[in-house]
What we know:
3 helices, elongated, 34% helix, mainly alpha
Amino acid sequence: MLALIERLKYEPKSMWRAKQLGSYEHFGWGSDTYLLAGIANTVRAMAKGKQLSPTERVKPPEVTRSKPKNRQKFNPALPVAQQNYGALFPS
């Protein structure tokens, strides 16, 4: 089960991964898709005979890292009734 959870970091169709990279535009963009976008831009530039304008290029999404939110930490030493289980899951 833990192996499947760890795999989410690398799955192109993982909403969790897309959110960690900064936006949902990253959904579906794997390493192969980035390579294909680069190849498509190169082939189109070669066919045109000059550099492509920014509007003609296939532009992959850029990674934007946001600062982590300050949230209350989970304290396993507290009794069950006083636990903050919301701290286990990022919002």
